Amino acid sequence: MMGERRIDQAALFYEFSLERHVPADHMLRAIDRFVDLEGVRAYVAPFYSPIGRPSIDPELLIRMLIVGYCFGIRSERRLCEEVHLNLAYRWFCRLGLDGDVPDHSTFSKNRHGRFRDSDLLRHLFETVVERCMSEGLVGGEGFAADASLIKADANRQRGVPGAEGLPAEATSRAIAEYLAVLDDAAFGAATPVVPKFISPNALIWCDGEQRNAWAGASASGDARFKMRRVTHLPRTAYIHDIVFMGQQLIGTVTGHNFVGVFDETGECRPVWRPAFLDDLGDAIFERNLIQLNSMAAGADIEHSYFTAFATGRDHKSWKLNGGPVGQGVVLSGLTREPLVSGLTCPHSARLAGGRLWVCDSGRGTFGYVEDFVHHDHSRARYIEVGRVPGFARGLAVIDDVVLVGLSRVLSDYADYAPGIDPPTSTCGVWMYCAHTGRNLGWIEWPGGDQVYDIQFWGGGEGYVSAL
After folding, report:
1. Which CATH class is domain 233-466?
2. Using CB atoms within 10 A as the burial measure, which of 162, 252, 384, 442 is most buried?
3. Residues of CATH 2.120.10.30 domain(s) within the chain?
4. 3-state class (DSSP) for residue 85
């Protein structure tokens, strides 16, 4: 016979034991047997005031930190929430059912205050090592280090000489503390090695004369620009393309997969992202998923277009499934969906002459997107106009002439450019007829490798700048 749940009047008293509700095989039970924090209070006592309100028990903070380390809870705010809700965590932290959980700010105050001043965490680490030695688990006569090779996420072109260091405004507290520790002999300062480059990430704001601002710059050394402000950004942001829309500075934040609005304080507010990443929430900001790079800027975001190497959801997804060949897309600002797909490392989208131009860089071509104004994937298609002898990066249209910046295909990135022969690829600026794709001339830099962008300033005289 099927039973039914009866809703009775709530009891006035409950008998409840945390001890019975934590399974015998729970990991925290195994850890608790060996946790001995009796000496913590005495060790940090000199760093507390003898008067005032009682503080949070330092043993409770350490136990909560152990929970965070064991279960991968990196956020102190979330750690406090989890300890508040999880019975096993409450049992391990000796909080009972009604014990108050400290505010998340308490951890920051103690980590950057008493715990640091007293070197408590180092003391606990050494205590654990001593106990392991006394139990015969380790001999204390040698040590091992992780020697895994990790490719540096750095860029020589954005580097500054290491001897100069980073400016104060670019150095967060965490960075400053890390660099300060490296000055200790135990961490390598006994070897006087100065890093060759330090890689900042910054926006430089300048005031300057618009008319002929570049004329005579080489001769006089004065480009008629005055630096007004430098705003430093997180290294992972990786700003790829920036443009003014009205009075707002808009940029593709490649490392975080969104388009944002920048202000002069360095703050960046996300205003656009691809629809296929919506369900990831804030997780899309953690790492580069799609190499969102260039922007064909219209009057506003909805009338703009963006390029990306892939539509995957894994870190650097264009490197998976055989590489970036055919994974590239042009994205509509209005629908936030792919407008054209099947490209290879698309780059340098530009609106000019009523056309949406783009470089299919990995295949060594440039062209335009036909029927793009309807933002309809079923109607739009990429029309090749011409082929180029290098990786196309940087495009400018001047009347009937298309200027394309070219970079050599380096051996490490040959998979990115299946349509280009790496040994014969070149670096420079090539000129083509916008209608026929016929080559009209070129400027080649035999000793150069990379061109990142090109821009054209019109007016009485025209200037082309290759970066």
Report:
1. mainly beta
2. 252
3. 233-466
4. helix
